[in-house]
Each structure stands twice: as C-alpha cells, then as structure tokens.
C-alpha cells in the first residue's frame, strides 16, 4: 500500500484508513472550513463534499464535525505539521495546556 502525507495549512495527514480525497476533506474540516470553502479548495462540487463528509462520519464512527476533528486527532490521522510524535511528548509537562 502506498502511503502519502499531505499538508493543509499548518495541518498534515497520512493516507491509510482514509482515501486521499477523504483525508483532504478531513484536513479542511479540521482547519475550520465550511462545505462551500472545502469544495473550492478541493476543486469539486459541494455535493461531492457532502458525500465525502458522510463517508468520513461513517468511517470514524462520529456524527458531527467537531467529533470528526477530535477523532481524527485522537487516531493520529491528522496532526500539526512539524509537531513531535506522541513518543517524543511523553514525560513533558504542559501545565494545563492542551496538546493535540
């Protein structure tokens, strides 16, 4: 299986569980874009974005955009570009700061 890493703004993701188009849509959702903005960014129809998001909800077992974002980060599907891997974060104190 060919693995591809893509970036969207300050976010990055790697293919695997999600198809490339689904991953691009997930990154755009994580970046806070609305469906029409996602359609423009991915150069596709808004209806295509809607269907892609429905597939994302099913694959990730979620029912809202905010839950999709949380689940994508929890599973490690999406991360901040250049952020250390979870192994490097162990033992670090963040004093109440949320680290995704």
In short:
The chain has 100 residues and is mainly alpha-helical. The protein has 5 helices and 3 strands.
Describe the structure.
With 100 residues, this protein is mainly α. 48% of the residues lie in helices and 11% in strands. It contains five helices and three strands. It has helices at residues 20-30, 35-42, 46-60, 65-74, 86-89, and strands at residues 5-8, 11-14, 78-80. A three-stranded antiparallel sheet has the order 1-2-3. Helix 1 crosses helix 2 (35-42) and helix 2 (35-42) packs across helix 3.
Estimate the mean pLDDT confidence: 82
| Strand runs, count | 3
Q: Note the run of SSEs as H and E.
A: EEHHHHEH
| Oligomeric composition of the shown chains | single chain
Q: What share of the residues does DSSP label as strand, in percent?
A: 5-15%
How much helix, percentage-wise, in residues?
Answer: 40-55%
Shape field = globular
DSSP helical segment count:
5
Q: Could you give the distance between the termini?
A: 27 Å
Strand order of the largest sheet: 1-2-3
Spans where pLDDT lies below 50 across 5 or more residues? 85-100
Structural class: mainly alpha
From the alpha carbons, calculate the radius of gyration and give it in angstroms: 14 Å
Largest sheet: 3 strands, antiparallel
